[in-house]
């Protein structure tokens, strides 16, 4: 039996193992299916059968076959055809003859106010113009019927018009189709034809194919051939008379890399299926080997080498190592260069506004040489390292430079392969002896005369940075000969992003050179705080500083992380009209001698050998100042003038302030820039920035928000002047303040335990009190007790407290894993719930005592029920009062919301589902808390109605409960008025997002509650007769005359029944004796 159980156990384990292994395999395979388009395709070979269109292909392609040369034996030909001849995201242009191929609908698209029905007709109001893109794949090669001159092939063409997207992914299915929706039209055509090679015009490769497609029908004899697009009901026509001819170069070189094609209709012009010719432009893809060989062109452009372009200043260090190819691949792959404005140009307008050798349109020319939002891509980088003379390292590099206009989608531009007057094919050399990469550039489609190869490209990789030099790659494009037209040298740069500093390359090669410490010191002197304020800060507040126990470089790295800001911000002071939050990103580039970040694992011995910072020297305040450089980025249209600032200055750890000089990239016309003689490397550096960080201590009393001030030092009439900007961030946390947040939550939990314990003590005190004051028990208001019981029951029944903690916020994320799993907080939470349950049960017991006392009193006087206190009128009056109050609150809240609109509140359940709350629901939740704060109001109304002559409530009870209700408001008033970034709402002790926990509410509500407690004290301190005599002695009577309706009866008749442990017979005997009297 044991052997059988062991076998079953092992078999189950084996089954589970196979199940998880198969699941992992399936998921792994699925995850990598997205890379299918980027790897070499190995499509199965196809065989032409009887009935294929081979005869038609030979007839239509007869002119090309006549010039075809014999194919040399090549076992790798099929593989090369399949992988070298496809192209992605090329360009297509249709001749304007009145017969367009496909329509395009631009309505209902962002940034567009008009529709475009024809592909060659673009809306000038759109910020992104549609692109005509085309891709082609070889789907099969006929290897079963070898021929001396041709090879049978099949292919698929995927073309269309799009504003936001590409055609890089091959469609699924084997049927030709046409699809269209706003912003995109796409057409799929399947082809069958032949491949051949020719020696004509220097040699090349040709594919001639016949296609089959479903074309959209045009409206004949109409000014608008696409009337039906307004109804989105296309009429499709099957057409198999489509001829496609593609011309490929044999080898990939500087001057032979272009793919040219032509697609035309074989139908008559009178046929509705006829369309105008389509010209296709692309280039050989990454699976074609590049052949370096344009030595003469490179020598002509780069003599003497290195070419003296004057781009690099003497203070900039240049990379001279052996890893240039890796650097180019890393910093150019998918990234765009920024075009530097022609701020040095002093020529004519056309000369200074021209974008180098590129043939631009009105969109770029309108920037007047500022080139705002114009980008330059470096595509298809081929780098071949070689060994030079001696210890010199050299490399041969080729690439394609593509100018990207402002209206073009940058993500689509990265994938484009078409060659045009906006592209520059380049090839050149690099040597480590001088660090210059010099290349010759050829504009557009290069002809046999090589007239377009008249551009020189010089670029460098700087490894030293400053406030005016933040580029990891910079270069210029200049003209070689003025025969074909001149242009001002075009400069470009690749800004180093702060996120790219977290690697070994940055730590081992890059450095920073400070140059603005004198100007920053002047800013510090002008903004020094008063002596008293400075002394207070130094005595009681601590700010981010170097760690005492760590090594110097480790301390600098930790401090740079604390001084980094990635947070939202709002204007300071907060405007009445609500504005969208601004995203603030301030990344520390260098701090003191440290550039980037220090990795202690790289050199543990040096870290251990370092002297701790505190043991180095006793420093004065001036010596404690640290040099710092940073990069500040602001989002939003309001801050477009200072969207990116390069900062450098001083950090004072005693006051937590940075005093910085800022430089910004100015995108103005070349005339304004040239006339501004105070620019530094084309940057506006007359900017002062002050960043004030919150202290690391006393976060309960000081707002943990950073403040940023940006001001221009120019005159107001200067075209580069901008108004002062003041921002206040949302709460921030330093690295070691996570424990502070945890302890604060724990302290607030302990405060809840203490307040609930105090409330329980007060209720117990009242229970003991009514055992001695039995005659006053019926005059305790059940409405008052019901309000308190309601307050205790809501968190127990509906989970309202959990709801308050899970209120979704637009600025903060969900609680962290550590906070949710902390056992200490679970203990506090469970203790709080137990105490709430105890308080609820004791309140119910008190209600029971009052209810029984009134029943006994009613049984004693059944013929005079009016002599027994009743809460009906009391409940009605309180309902009216609170309904009127709630309506007033809604009106006031609506007025405030109209002046400063707030986002709708949401809450999240335990499953993560988010639900919206109506405005009145949120306000009602707040008002319920207000009703609990004013719990004595029903008792005051009851005392007035019942004309009491006793003391129903013990002072410890109503004063103690009042204090318990007021403690959250007092706590909220004295603590820092900010929220905890780790939680959706504030802390569980109070909810400051509610209007009743505003500063006004924190004052008005306690004062009102204290007044109610004083009124109860006065009502119980003096009897109703004394109050009536005192208040009615004046000319105006404030109280009605006494009434005997609620005249108290002797309470001894039911005293024994309220005391536990007394039997019914004794109580009955006492009752009879009282009645005989």
UniProtKB/TrEMBL annotation:
It is found in: Endomembrane system. Its EC number is 2.3.2.27. GO terms for molecular function: ubiquitin protein ligase activity. Pathway: Protein modification; protein ubiquitination. The keyword Secreted does not apply. It catalyses: S-ubiquitinyl-[E2 ubiquitin-conjugating enzyme]-L-cysteine + [acceptor protein]-L-lysine = [E2 ubiquitin-conjugating enzyme]-L-cysteine + N(6)-ubiquitinyl-[acceptor protein]-L-lysine. One of its GO terms (cellular component) is endomembrane system. Residues 737-1024 form the SWEET-like domain. Residues 57-278, 298-488, 528-725 form the DUF2921 domain. It is a multi-pass membrane protein. Keywords: Membrane, Transferase, Transmembrane, Transmembrane helix, Ubl conjugation pathway. The chain crosses the membrane at residues 749-770, 782-804, 824-847, 875-895, 996-1018. This is RING-type E3 ubiquitin transferase. The lineage of its organism: Eukaryota, Viridiplantae, Streptophyta, Embryophyta, Tracheophyta.
């Amino acid at each position: 039996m044991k052997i059988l159980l062991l076998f079953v156990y092992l078999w189950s384990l084996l089954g589970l193992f196979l199940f998880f292994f198969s699941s992992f395999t399936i998921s792994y395979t699925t995850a990598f299916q997205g890379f299918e388009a980027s790897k070499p395709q190995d499509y199965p070979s196809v065989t032409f059968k009887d009935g294929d269109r081979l005869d038609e292909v030979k007839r239509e392609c007869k002119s090309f076959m006549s010039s075809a040369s014999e194919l040399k034996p090549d076992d790798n030909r099929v593989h090369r055809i399949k992988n070298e001849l496809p192209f992605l995201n090329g360009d297509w242009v249709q001749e304007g003859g009145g017969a367009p191929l496909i329509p395009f609908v631009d309505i209902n698209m962002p940034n567009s106010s008009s529709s475009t029905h024809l592909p060659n007709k673009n809306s000038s109001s759109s910020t992104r113009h549609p692109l005509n893109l085309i891709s082609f794949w070889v789907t099969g090669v006929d290897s079963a019927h070898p021929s001396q001159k041709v090879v049978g092939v099949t292919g698929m063409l995927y073309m269309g018009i799009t504003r936001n997207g590409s055609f890089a992914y091959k469609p699924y299915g084997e049927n030709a189709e046409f699809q269209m929706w706003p912003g995109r039209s796409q057409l799929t055509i399947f082809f069958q034809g032949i491949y051949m090679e020719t020696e004509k015009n220097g040699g090349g490769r040709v594919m001639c194919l016949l296609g089959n497609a479903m074309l959209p029908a045009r409206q004949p004899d109409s000014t608008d051939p696409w009337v039906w697009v307004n109804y989105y009901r296309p009429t499709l026509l099957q057409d198999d008379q489509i001829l496609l001819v593609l011309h490929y170069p044999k080898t990939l070189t500087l001057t032979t890399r272009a793919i040219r094609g032509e697609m035309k209709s074989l139908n008559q012009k009178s046929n509705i299926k006829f369309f105008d010719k389509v010209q296709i432009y692309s280039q050989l893809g990454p699976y074609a080997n590049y052949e370096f060989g344009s030595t003469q062109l490179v020598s002509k452009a780069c003599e003497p080498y290195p070419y003296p372009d004057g781009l690099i200043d003497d203070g900039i260090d240049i990379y001279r190592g052996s890893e240039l190819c890796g650097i180019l691949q890393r910093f150019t792959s998918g990234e765009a260069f920024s075009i530097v404005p022609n701020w040095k140009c002093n020529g004519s307008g056309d000369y200074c506004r021209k974008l180098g050798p590129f043939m631009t349109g009105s969109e770029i020319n309108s920037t007047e040489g500022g080139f705002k939002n114009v980008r330059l891509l470096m595509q298809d980088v081929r780098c071949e390292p070689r060994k030079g003379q001696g210890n010199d390292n050299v490399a041969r590099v080729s690439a394609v430079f593509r100018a990207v206009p402002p209206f073009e989608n940058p993500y689509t531009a990265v994938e484009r392969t078409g060659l045009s007057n906006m592209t520059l094919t380049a090839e050149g050399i690099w040597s480590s002896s001088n660090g210059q990469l010099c290349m010759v550039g050829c504009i557009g489609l290069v002809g046999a005369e090589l007239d377009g190869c008249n551009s020189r490209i010089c670029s460098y990789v700087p490894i030293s940075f400053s406030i005016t030099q933040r580029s990891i790659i910079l270069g210029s494009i200049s003209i070689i000969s003025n025969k074909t037209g001149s242009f001002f040298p075009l400069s470009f740069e690749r800004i180093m992003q702060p996120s790219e500093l977290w690697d070994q390359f940055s730590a081992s090669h890059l450095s920073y050179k400070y140059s603005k410490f004198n100007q920053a010191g002047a800013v510090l002197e002008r903004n020094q705080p008063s002596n008293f304020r400075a002394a207070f800060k130094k005595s009681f507040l601590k700010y981010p500083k170097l760690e005492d126990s760590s090594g110097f470089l480790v301390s600098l790295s930790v401090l740079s992380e604390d001084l980094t800001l990635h947070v939202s911000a709002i204007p300071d002071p907060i405007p009445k009209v609500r504005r969208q939050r601004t995203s603030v990103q301030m990344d520390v580039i260098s701090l003191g001698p440290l550039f980037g970040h220090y990795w202690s694992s790289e050199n543990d011995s040096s870290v251990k050998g370092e002297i701790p910072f505190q043991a180095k020297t006793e420093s004065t305040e001036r010596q404690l100042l640290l040099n710092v450089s940073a990069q500040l980025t602001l989002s939003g249209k309001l801050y477009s003038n200072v969207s990116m600032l390069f900062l450098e200055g001083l950090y004072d750890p005693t006051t937590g302030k940075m005093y910085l000089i800022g430089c910004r990239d100015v995108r103005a016309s070349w005339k304004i820039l040239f006339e501004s003689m105070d620019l530094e490397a084309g940057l506006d550096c007359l900017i002062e920035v002050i960043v004030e960080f919150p202290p690391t201590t006393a976060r309960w009393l000081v707002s943990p928000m950073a403040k940023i001030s940006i001001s221009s030092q120019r005159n107001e009439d200067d075209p580069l002047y901008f108004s002062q900007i003041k921002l206040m961030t949302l709460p921030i946390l330093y690295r070691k303040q996570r424990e502070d947040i945890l302890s604060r939550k724990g302290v607030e939990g302990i405060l809840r335990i203490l307040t609930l314990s105090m409330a329980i003590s007060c209720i117990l005190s009242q229970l003991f009190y009514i055992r001695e004051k039995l005659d006053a028990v019926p005059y305790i208001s059940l409405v008052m007790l019901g309000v308190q019981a309601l307050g205790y029951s809501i968190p127990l029944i509906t989970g309202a407290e959990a709801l308050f903690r899970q209120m979704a916020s637009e600025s903060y994320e969900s609680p962290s894993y550590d906070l949710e799993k902390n056992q200490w907080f679970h203990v506090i939470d469970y203790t709080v719930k137990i105490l709430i349950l105890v308080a609820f049960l004791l309140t119910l017991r008190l209600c029971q005592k009052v209810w029984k006392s009134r029943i006994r009193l009613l049984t004693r006087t059944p013929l005079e029920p009016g002599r027994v206190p009743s809460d009906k009128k009391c409940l009605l009056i309180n309902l009216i009062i609170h309904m009127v109050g709630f309506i007033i609150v809604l009106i006031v809240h609506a007025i405030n919301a109209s002046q400063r609109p707030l986002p709708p509140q949401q809450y999240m359940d335990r499953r993560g589902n988010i639900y919206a709350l109506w405005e009145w629901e949120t306000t009602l939740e707040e008002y319920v808390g207000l009703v609990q704060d004013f719990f004595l109001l029903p008792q005051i109304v009851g005392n007035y109605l019942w004309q009491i002559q006793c003391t129903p409530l013990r002072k410890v009870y109503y004063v103690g409960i009042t204090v318990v209700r007021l403690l959250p408001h007092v706590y909220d008033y004295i603590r820092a008025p900010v929220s905890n970034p780790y939680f959706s709402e504030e802390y569980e002790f109070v909810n400051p997002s509610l209007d009743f926990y505003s500063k006004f509410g924190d004052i008005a509500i306690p004062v009102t509650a204290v007044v109610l407690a004083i009124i109860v004290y006065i009502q119980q301190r003096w009897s109703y007769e004394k109050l009536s005599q005192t208040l009615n002695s004046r000319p105006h009577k404030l109280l009605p005359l006494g009434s005997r309706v609620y005249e108290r009866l002797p309470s001894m008749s039911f005293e024994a029944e309220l005391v536990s442990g007394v039997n019914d017979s004794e109580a009955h005997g006492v009752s009879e004796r009282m009645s005989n009297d």
